[in-house]
Amino acid sequence: MSVADKTQKKSGGLGETVSVIVQALLLALVIRTLLFQPFSIPSGSMRPTLLEGDYLFVTKWAYGYSHYSLPFSPNLFSGRIFGSDPARGDVAVFKYPPDPSLDYIKRVIGLPGDRVQMREGVLYINGEAVKREKVGEINNPDVTEERRPVDVYRETLPNGVSYDTLDLSPNGSYDNTREFVVPEGNFFMMGDNRDNSSDSRVFGFVPAENLVGRANIIFFSIADKSSPLAIWNWPSDMRASRLLNVVR
């Protein structure tokens, strides 16, 4: 084999490697933009449904696409493409209205036209109290962030979606609110950790354009304050029982 042949072979091998890397990056970009996006839980506002240290996939196509669906959110168009409204009870990721550089995750409680209010810790939608029953207590700081038993209530929305909520205080600062009327094209979001959630009771409504996607499945979970990169800590810190749990 001549020197020219060897040089050509080396060049071809490098070119093929670069081509494979570029194709893989493009495929990953398409998947992240159109299909699934990984998301880590940044706070305890959705406890006990989601915990800090949970890593989940968000379904991007669930509500269609806005410019927030694109990496770095370039303002190339307004509104949503192939848009569909979230269902009441969905756990959704969205861009925080006061600062769209931040991702938030909450539960969809109010749809356009709904009247939403909290009265003495009970959720009311369109003047009707949402079914709420105490189902027990949790005495696990990893779940509640409290070193004491915390009451757990099961809420059932008018469409039949049920989920657990924490009641850290019977007279919490968010237990009584004014009545919110959800405007067209907007949604009312709330955290399941009702006394420790900055949500639509605080920052107002979430425009449909801000929706990123629906939380789908937990693919990894590790105890709070533990790094997922510290593989040697997985045997003690990984929450194995939460792996592959569907988010409801």
TrEMBL record:
It comes from Oryzicola mucosus. Belongs to the peptidase S26 family. It is an enzyme of class 3 (hydrolase). The lineage of its organism: Bacteria, Pseudomonadati, Pseudomonadota, Alphaproteobacteria, Hyphomicrobiales. The active site is at S45, K106. One of its GO terms (biological process) is signal peptide processing. The chain crosses the membrane at residues 20-39. This is Signal peptidase I. PANTHER family: CHLOROPLAST PROCESSING PEPTIDASE (PTHR43390:SF1), SIGNAL PEPTIDASE I (PTHR43390). Its EC number is 3.4.21.89.
